[in-house]
């Protein structure tokens, strides 16, 4: 019988791993499927619609998303795993209020592309090419940024950054004290 998935500890703003550009992942890496199960489990437990591997301490180049879950009335889950994703083209513009599991209680309006085309390897090893727009495009761009070591606050203008400076400094101080990990259940 399969083990229950694990709740993985989440790295918070200030942690060096969130600033690392993750290298290409070999799909045949041992333990990948178990890790994917844990990543999906942790995303839902943290009420996220996306979670990247470096947010939970891994250097594997992948993330999971479920952009429709937040709007789903009957808790319909449809996790999409993207390994070694590439954003092939971008067009249009959308401004969206974003948050991040690694930056609790911090939000900001980010300007992104409204339409993207992208490719990725799914959890079964199949390479897929697709298009996305609006919310799904935003979520993919946010998670893709994580794999590049970029956080949504990097996209904010000076004024918006000033507004959240105190919160960022507090998170960074926690990171310095080695308390940069979000543990326990969030219910
Ligand atoms: Zn994030």
Task: Tell me what the structure shows.
With 187 residues, the protein is an alpha+beta fold. It has a single domain (10-80, 93-112, 134-182), classed as Peptide Deformylase. 25% of the residues lie in helices and 29% in strands. The protein has 3 helices and 9 strands; from the N terminus they run E-H-E-E-E-E-E-E-E-H-H-E. The strands form 3 sheets. The protein has a 5-stranded antiparallel β-sheet with strand order 2-3-4-7-8, sandwiched between helices. Strand 5 and strand 6 (103-112) form a beta hairpin. The longest helix has 19 residues, at 158-176. The site of zinc ion has 5 residues, from helix 2.
What is the structure about, briefly put?
The protein has 187 residues and is an alpha+beta fold.
Task: Give me the secondary-structure topology.
Elements: E1 10-11, H1 32-45, E2 50-52, E3 62-65, E4 80-91, E5 94-100, E6 103-112, E7 115-121, E8 127-133, H2 134-147, H3 158-176, E9 181-182
Antiparallel strand pairs: 1-9, 2-3, 3-4, 4-7, 5-6, 7-8
Bound molecules: zinc ion (ZN).
